[in-house]
Amino acid sequence: MGNFNATDSFEQMENQELIQKLIDNGFGNLVDAFLLNDGKVYTKKGRLNKSGACRVLKCKPKDLEDAIIACQDLLQREMLDQEQIEEREIERQQNEA
Predict the structure, then answer these.
(1) Most buried of 27, 48, 52, 75 (most Cβ within 10 A)?
(2) 34 found inside a domain
(3) What is the extent of the structural domain holding 28?
């Protein structure tokens, strides 16, 4: 039987949920470009190659930067919302105890 790491599995699920959130909010083209063209949009060191990403997406650098900022804002709100939900659940459990 192979090694099963629950933490890695949980992180993978969480990443999939965040990716789906981006897709659901209109950033599917960005997600596809980044996931399906890694040789063109990332450097050998794993950094974003903005020129390569712009070529793949057929957009201007400013449009790419704006889209990335919008994605970051969306994900930050999502993470804050999730933290608030978890905090409320902890408070509820403590109040029941």
Answers:
(1) 27
(2) yes
(3) 10-96
Residue 51 lies in a domain: yes
Q: Provide the token pair at 20.
A: 């789906």
pTM here is 0.75
Please count the structural domains in the chain. 1
In tens, the pLDDT along 52-92 reads: 999 999 999 999 999 999 999 999 988 888 778 788 888 88
3-state class (DSSP) for residue 3: coil
Bridge partners, residue 48, by sequence: 42
Q: Is 42 helix (H, G, I), strand (E, B) or coil?
A: strand
pLDDT tops 70 at residue 14 = yes
Whether 25 maps to a domain, the answer reads yes
| pLDDT over threshold 80, residue 15 | yes
Question: Could you give the angle at which helices 61-96 and 6-22 cross, rounded to 10 degrees?
Answer: 130
